[in-house]
Amino acid sequence: MTTAEPRLALATRGLTKTYGDGESLVRAVDAVDLEVARGETVAVMGPSGCGKSTLLHLVGGLDRPSSGEIDLAGRRIDRLGERALARLRRTDVGFVFQAFHLMDELTVVENVELPALLAGHSPRRARARAMALLDRVGVEHKAGSLPTALSGGQRQRVAVARALSNEPVLVLADEPTGNLDSAATLDVLRLFEELHESGQTLVIVTHDERIAATADRLITMRDGAFVDETRLTGGTSGRLGALAGFES
Amino acid sequence: MQQEVVLALLAKEPSHGYQLRARLRQALGPVGEAMNAGQVYVVLTRLEKAGLVTTERPERPNPAKTAKDPADRKTYVLTPQGQQRVAEWLTEVSWPKPDLAEFHLKLVAAAAAGLADPLGIVDTQRRELLRRLREAQRAAMAEPDGSDAALLLEGIVLRLQADLRWLEACERSWTTRRSTS
């Protein structure tokens, strides 16, 4: 019997990423302390260049910090070697990007099963898992299509399915609705809500107030640091009528 | 509720009050939840007094079939003046007015008198708008595709987003002013 699962999916302490030196030193991420509980959805907002994407890359092992610590599910990852870090990116973290980053020459199901194949699962098992995930995100009928034949919203659903391929501890999303119209955004928000309800931990960096408003917690970032934190949970106020100008 | 709204709903066919209420509920979804059940009747009574609507009663009321509320036994019908008012209303250009000036002046006055930090006021407002956005967004997510109410909720969401963007502009501007003063 192993020890109990750690409460936190992610924790950083003094996480810092700098570029350049001397006069031209830029603190892209400046001593960030972040704790994300298992099952929590956290949105990070801030203007372009505030460091939110860099933060996401650091905690997902796509980039290395200049200093500070990162714990992913209780395991230090800031000092991992290149190979261990590559394995971590494949198995413990799922990424969703603004531009989807699907491989256009592979079919939808091939895109989704790729992470499982890279992690060493059998083709049969990888395919079965991919089909189950496509079913879960509602695009199983497009399994044999090329990504270019799909709408933006459908492509992002496929990207989410791919991110879930290896049952990651953490799903990281970078402007996931940046390329989507209003209806497709709603669609992706519903999908995130379903993931949230199933207990998936999500960290989303975004400009989109709609995502921010549906997260459990909203962190505002400026110049590489957290400047505000808001917990948005709570019941309804019944004021929708007033919001619509429909006075009751 | 605007009288014209009820008038226009009645343009489809002569209806009972509860039928109008059902049409409103259908179109508004969660937005209409706070609507008082008696409101439609209050408006209908006003419309009747104004000569825009008349009522018809069934000739021989069947107690088994009629609704409990006596007002529900009446069928409301548009008068020619009512028809005309609906036609006019449909061509009128009106749009809800946002009241940005008051908030803007609050920031200006707070900063000038040194009473409060404009950025603090912006923050408080932003949280409130985010809460409202959360509520509208959640309601929108719960609506089935293509529902009338979903379209209305999208409108609420887009307006709140626009307000939040303006608050960002306020924040940028007041941050710059503070650091240069």
From TrEMBL, chain B:
The chain positions of domain Transcription regulator PadR N-terminal read: 6-87
> Membrane-spanning residues where?
none
**Gene3D superfamilies (alphabetical):** Winged helix-like DNA-binding domain superfamily/Winged helix DNA-binding domain
Q: What is this protein called?
A: PadR family transcriptional regulator
